[in-house]
Amino acid sequence: MNKFKAFLLKNKVGFVKLLTVFLAIASITNIYISLKVNVTSNDECLWLGEKINQDSTAYFFRNVKVNGVSYNAGIRDGDQLLQINDYVVRNDQEAQGVLNLVDEGEFADYVVKKQDGSIFKTKVLIKKLISFGTLTFNISALFWLLIGFLVFIAKPEGKQQKLFYLLGVSFVLSTLFNLFPQTAELFQFFNDHPFLSTLLFAASTYGTASLPFVFLYFIWNFFKPIKIAQIRWVRILFIILSVILFLYGVSLLPYIFERSDYVMSKIRSYLTLMSIVSSITNITAGITLLVLYFTEKNKQSRKPILIILLSFVLALVVLIYLSTIAPVLADTIFNSPEYYTPVILLVLVPIIFAYAIFKYHLLDMSVVIMNTVFYSIATASIVAIYFLAVYGLGHSLSGFFGTESQGIIAIFLFTIFAIRFQSTKDKALKFITQKFYPEQFAYENVLVKFSNDISIVVGIDNILNLTIDTFVGSLRIKKFAVLLNENKSGQLILVKQFGFKHTHCELDKNIIQKYIDDNLEIQKYPELSRENFEILFGKKAEILIEEDIYTIVPLLVKSKVIGVLLFGLKYSGSQFSGKDIELLYAAGNQLAIAIENARLYQSEVEKISIEHDLEIARKIQRGLLPACVPYLNGLDICGEMIPAMHVGGDYYDLINLNNKKIFVAVADVSGKGLSASLYMTKLQTITQLYCKDGSSPKEILIEANKILYDSLEPGAFITMTLALFDIEEKTVKICRAGHLPVFMVEGDEVKSIRPKGIALGLDENKLFESNLEEVEFDFRSGQIFSFLSDGFTETMNEKNELFGEEIILELLRKNAHSSSSEIFEKINSEIIKFRQNADQHDDMTMVIVKVKQ
Q1: CATH number for domain 132-362, candidates 1.10.3470, 1.10.20, 1.10.720, 1.20.1070
Q2: CA 713/CA 451 separation, integer angstroms
Q3: Which pTM was predicted?
Q4: Are 549 and 567 in contact (CB under 8 A)?
């Protein structure tokens, strides 16, 4: 379904073109029928029916024009019409149909009963009466359609443009009523084609029912959308009323070929009802224009409103004349049709609309006119000039070189023509744009220069300043703003503006991104016009409307929205559209790339600065660790901390007391990186402060927990093992606060020393103290004690396999004869070999204490 919808939207303009061709053909056919087919035969009098009895009606001549064709045939007021060309008159509609078959300038045979009762036959010369009202409506409908089509293709996504085109379609459809039989030939044709008759009647009824409401709604949105036009129930009410009138009209479909007085009265009632509805909507539209004119403060904006108002006045004057003055001057239209011809002036109404639209750039129609008229003429002229030049030069050269060389000369000249044609055409079109559309020409030059200059500007502030200078200074736009994605909230924030009252303006980036994604398949340059604001942004649209923003152009990098440009009206007072949008997109793309490059450059500078700071922090942290291993007779000690990042959260320390005792501390702060390293530094300070002679590992950890519990962030904790080696007593005390066990190797046997304990910072004191256990035992020559963090045991390779404790224990056992530093290097090399190309995900710390032989 989405693909089908996308196909329809993508080819919308093509479908509209096809529909316009069909409707234009129908309209032209309608005009032809009004002029040549549905023409009323006129005998310059009236036939008025009078009831003779319950079942029959007699028709008498009235308003017989003195010296008219009927008068000259001997017919007078009060005579009774009996027959026309052998047809016995029983129904005036059927009699008119018979009379319509007689060509203009020929005679019809009348049988007439005089007032004295005598009956005589006479010949009446037939004139033809064109319905100028119908013809005017048909021509006007064609104009509305063509103007609406030009407006629509200028901006297919515009709400006003869609309404204008719908107005033209409704006008043409409503005129299809004129196709229905007024002659015997048409009557027979429609009887033989019931499906076509039904289709045309339904279409004409739809056009007639919808036209008044489409016209009024268009006026409500024409210059600028008024509030009542934005109310949802108003739109729904218009649709419901249109549907009701349409269904009422369609209900007459079964009787359209009947000529009874009852059916004709029904049709007349329907047309009268539609006339009343049209009058109400037209009056409402006129009042709307008056209000807009007197409330509009800008003199330039009032001019097109005044022109459209004048078209309403013209229509009103013509209608008043036709309904009041014309009937006084002429007793009937049949006797004096010339008094009713001013109705043709109504054709000027759509022309006046077109003039106002084009003159004041109301619906962005100028680009289409330029492309379809000026550029087409220019291209055709260049082709003609080239053709004449090639023809003349070829003819001359053929005469010089001989006719046998004519083919070669023609090929040569046309090759030159093909090479030079495009560049010549481009220069000609550039000249036309400069001459007839100076504003667009200036825009092209300014925006092309901007696109070239922006690529060499460094720094976002400088880029934004150049943008403001270009769009505000050079293009003289009174309302302009740049919104960029400045944070991770998904909002585009106002970073630069001109002419804004609201300094705080935000738009949802995700909404704009979705709109662009949905429309990129349909349009090459999808912009957000004012009619989309309320639908997309809800209440935030009020700020855009208050600020007189009409167009939003996205800033895209690889089809991703990084910001938007907000535009008010151009200096001329018109909206950006057509070629303008293409130029703004090109400039916007260059601006987006420049901003993104500036951000990347800034990020790179910041990254370099951070890496420099982290390198300093790494050196500082390395300086906090033991610079060298204290010399203790009887112990061989090696310690190393390898951070996963520049700095780490693992910690080890060797605190020597009077060369007889040494504290060995190994800890692991939850997390890694800078925050973990800060906690590690704090822990080191506490440890070094409390590791004094006479203190046991358990006492030190209890004191450390008291301090750390209040200072660690919620959820943070530290695991730690603290051991005290006494050289004189040959004893070791080990206390473990949730850390990995201490592995002890003696000969071929490996043991895990696992005293109870929970991590530092998880409990205030009681639970921590009650669960903390300290063990003490003698150490002997040859024993190896390994203190390590889980960064070793949980090292993973590319297959997500763990290195594990077993391998470390095996390496300790196999290398028990080596020194502590050799044992560490062996374990570390196996770790590197196991990990291969996988990243180090955690800090790794190990202290090995070997009791000498």
Answers
A1: 1.20.1070
A2: 50
A3: 0.58
A4: yes
b/e map of 646-655 (b: 16 or more CB within 10 Å)?
bbbbbbbbbb
Q: Are 528 and 551 in contact (CB under 8 A)?
A: yes
Q: Which residue has the tokens 């704009």?
A: 512
Asked if 793 and 804 touch (Cβ cutoff 8 Å), the reply is: yes
Pick the CATH number of 40-129 from 2.30.30.520, 2.30.42.10, 1.10.510.10, 3.30.420.40: 2.30.42.10
**What residue segments make up the domains of the chain, in order of their start?**
40-129, 132-362, 367-436, 441-602, 626-851
Q: Which residues pair with 529 in a beta bridge?
A: 551
For residues 739 and 722, give the distance between their C-alpha atoms in angstroms, rounded to a whole number. Answer: 10
Assign 225 to helix, strand or coil.
coil
Distance CA 782, CA 785 (A): 10
Separation between Cα atoms, residue 607 and residue 603, nearest integer Å: 6
User: In this structure, are strands 528-529 and 774-778 parallel, antiparallel, or unpaired?
Assistant: unpaired
750 strand-pairing partners: 745
Residue 534: helix, strand or coil by DSSP? helix
Q: Confirm if 179 and 30 have CB atoms less than 8 A apart.
A: yes
Range 626-851 has CATH code 3.60.40.10: yes
pLDDT in tens, 666-694: 988 876 666 677 788 888 888 888 888 88
Kindly report the three-state secondary structure assignment for every residue of 249-278: HHCCHHHCCCCCHHHHHHHHHHHHHHHHHH
Per DSSP bridges, beta strands 119-125 and 107-113 are antiparallel
Angle between helices 509-520 and 530-537 (to 10 degrees): 120
Is the separation of the CB atoms in 23 and 169 below 8 Å? Answer: yes
Instruction: Assess whether pLDDT exceeds 90 at residue 446.
Output: no
Taking residues 589-605, what's their average pLDDT? Answer: 80
